[in-house]
């Protein structure tokens, strides 16, 4: 009886572990997102950006929906809507994934979207300085 109980617990634990490895929080996350044009990829206007405004946009006001709906409150790609997306939304907390994503690349993706993913373009609803605010918030809050 004890062996059956232990076996059952191990099976359940294994299933949970396997299913969580496919969640939005996967690290590292393989991506084939096109690189931003050279002038944009190397740009970084986060120095004059407002992280507090970026947080407001990320959590509440971005249209058509707040960033957190897909990327999650923790920035790990585990938002309510993100769970249904393939590929999963970017996990900003994964240092291995984010080490090669420049501020300019993030700006470009937020502004123009990312083909082949659920990331829509926000360039028509957010001004450039607001996009930089979001980039600063993400990089200062989630990217380690």
Topology of this protein?
Blueprint: H1 2-20, H2 38-41, H3 51-61, H4 68-71, H5 95-98, H6 103-112, H7 128-141
CATH architecture: Orthogonal Bundle
**Biggest sheet record:** none
CATH superfamily: Cytochrome c-like domain
Low-confidence stretches: 4-23
Radius of gyration: 18 Å
User: How many DSSP E strands?
Assistant: 0
Order of helices and strands: HHHHHHH
Structural class: mainly alpha
Q: How many separate domains?
A: 1
The helix content is 40-55%
Question: Strand content of the residues, in percent?
Answer: under 5%
State the helix count: 7
The separation of the N and C termini measures 47 Å
CATH C-level:
Mainly Alpha
What is the CATH third-level topology name?
Answer: Cytochrome Bc1 Complex, Chain D, domain 2
Shape: globular
Mean pLDDT reading: 85
Protein described:
The chain has 144 residues and is mainly alpha-helical. It has one domain: Cytochrome c-like domain (Cytochrome Bc1 Complex, Chain D, domain 2). 46% of the residues lie in helices and 0% in strands. The chain contains 7 helices and no strands. α3 (51-61) packs across α7 (128-141). It is globular, with a radius of gyration of 18 Å. Mean pLDDT is 85; it is low at 4-23.
Short overview:
Helix content is 46%, strand content 0%.
Which terms would index this structure?
single chain, Cytochrome Bc1 Complex, Chain D, domain 2, 7 helices, globular
């Amino acid at each position: 009886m004890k062996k059956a109980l232990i076996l059952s617990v191990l099976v359940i634990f294994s299933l949970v572990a396997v299913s969580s490895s496919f969640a939005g929080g996967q690290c590292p996350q393989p991506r084939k997102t096109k690189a931003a044009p050279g002038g944009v990829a190397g740009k970084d206007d986060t120095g004059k950006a407002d992280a507090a405004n970026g947080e407001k946009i990320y959590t509440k006001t971005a249209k058509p929906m707040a960033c957190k709906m897909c990327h999650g409150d923790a920035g790990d790609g585990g938002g309510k809507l993100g769970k249904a997306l393939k590929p999963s939304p970017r996990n900003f907390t994964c240092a291995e994934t984010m080490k090669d994503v420049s501020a300019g690349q993030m700006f470009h993706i937020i502004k123009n979207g990312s083909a082949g993913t659920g990331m829509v373009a926000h360039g028509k609803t957010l001004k450039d300085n607001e996009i930089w605010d979001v980039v600063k918030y993400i990089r200062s809050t989630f990217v380690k």
